[in-house]
Amino acid sequence: MNIFGALFAAYWWMIPIIVVVRYCGTPAGKGFIGELFVNISAKLMLNSSVYHVFRDVTLPSEGGTTQIDHIVVSKFGVFVLETKNFAGWIFGGPRQTMWTQKFPRSSRKFQNPLHQNYKHTRTLADLLGLEDVAIHSLIVFVGDSVFKTAMPENVTQAGGYIRFIKSKTTQLLSDEQVATIIEQIRTGRLNPSLHTSQQHAQHVKRIVGKKTAAILHVVDEPTIKPSSTDQTCPKCGEDLVPRTYMTGPSAGSTFTGCSAFPSCRFIRRV
Predict the structure, then answer these.
(1) What span, in angstroms and rounded, lies between the C-alpha atoms of 82 and 72?
(2) How far is CA 229 from the centre of its chain?
(3) Phi, psi dihedrals of residue 94, rounded to the nearest 5°
(4) What is the C-alpha separation between 31 and 66, in angstroms, rounded?
(5) Per-residue pLDDT tens for 20-30?
(6) CA distances from 190 to 58, 114, 211 (A)
(7) Residue with more model confidence, 5 or 108
(8) How far apart are CA 266 and CA 198, in angstroms?
(9) Which of 24, 75, 111, 230 is deepest in the core (most CB within 10 A)?
């Protein structure tokens, strides 16, 4: 056995540990950890005879799919949970389109999670035939984050979401309605699978592409490259998608742009 074989035989067990550690540092890994925390704490701290917990529910919606981190069904209403595993200072308000995550030397904008969760609650309300009063939108921040602006009661940190759920003590649904809702979610959700996750990711990517197309302006024209039939971006390798100028002298004309916009601003005339 050569030296490399000997080293592998002695330290092979470190490879999966390194892979897991690196995955936990990615956005997908952080999201998984956050959802796992919520799932475990809900199972431990909510009475299973009163509260029925669903994790990672993907539902068909108009034009695609909607993915909900957690749904908690009870006679006190249906709670729709959106989980954020963030660090740093969090600034935001209920009516703001974008919130801010700030670190000592940097900051970034992210979509208001209350707005993000609105589509989830509407899709679920339509599926279940419920009125708004019986649907509770709930945002759960986990990780080392600190709110630096006042937040509404349904934006919580860590186990605070348990207190919010238990604070709702007015019965809104009968036992029969709860049983029906549980069955509707079980039968209406798409089967959890890699394929389902990929379908939802592609749907989200299409939505992002449409939104970014709306903010593109003619100032991007100097970056136009020579025409090519290749549908892959020559700068970064991502897919090219069709778009339309919404403003400026070129408004209404079409072009092909990189799906990684704004990190890659490659565009090509059609």
Answers:
(1) 12
(2) 33
(3) -55, -35
(4) 16
(5) 556 555 655 55
(6) 6, 24, 26
(7) 108
(8) 25
(9) 75
**Using one digit for the tens of pLDDT, what is the confidence trace for 148-198?**
999 999 999 988 999 999 999 999 999 999 999 999 999 988 874 434 444
DSSP state of 190: P
CA–CA separation, 170 and 186 (whole Å): 25
Give the residue among 32, 256, 13, 20 at the shortest CA–CA distance from 142: 32
Q: Is the pLDDT of residue 65 over 90?
A: no
CA–CA distances in Å: residue 17 to residues 21, 24, 27? 6, 11, 18
| CA-angle at 267, arms to 228 and 216, nearest 5° | 155
Q: Which residues, other chains included, contact 168 with Cβ-Cβ below 8 Å and sequence gap of 6+? A: 76, 77, 136
Sheet containing strand 267-269, strands side by side: 240-244, 254-258, 267-269
Mean pLDDT calculated for residue range 63-91: 92
Contact 139, 82 (CB under 8 A): yes
